[in-house]
Design brief:
By secondary structure, the protein is mainly alpha-helical. It contains 4 helices and no strands. Helix 1 packs antiparallel against helix 2, helix 2 packs antiparallel against helix 3 and helix 3 runs antiparallel to helix 4. The protein is globular and about 35 Å long. The relative contact order is 0.16.
């Protein structure tokens, strides 16, 4: 995960960009094969962690809740 690397360097905008790109890709793939649900869950969780680190707890909770839908 490139987004995780950016998050570890506190480059949150870049982290969100890469995680959101991944989320879009996994959403498209999941339409064809539900095997990608675990990747959707992980990506939502990673996005939530970035928002948490940024201090945006409401958005973080929304993404954690989205992750729970798949897990």
């Amino acid at each position: 995960y490139i987004g995780c690397l950016f998050r570890s360097k506190c480059q949150y905008t870049s982290a969100l960009t890469y995680h959101q790109r991944a989320l879009g890709i996994y959403q498209q793939l999941n339409l064809l094969d539900s095997a990608f649900e675990s990747m959707l869950m992980r990506t939502h969780a990673q996005i939530a962690l970035v928002y948490r680190d940024m201090g945006d707890t409401l958005t973080a909770l929304a993404h954690f809740n989205s992750a729970m839908q798949f897990g």
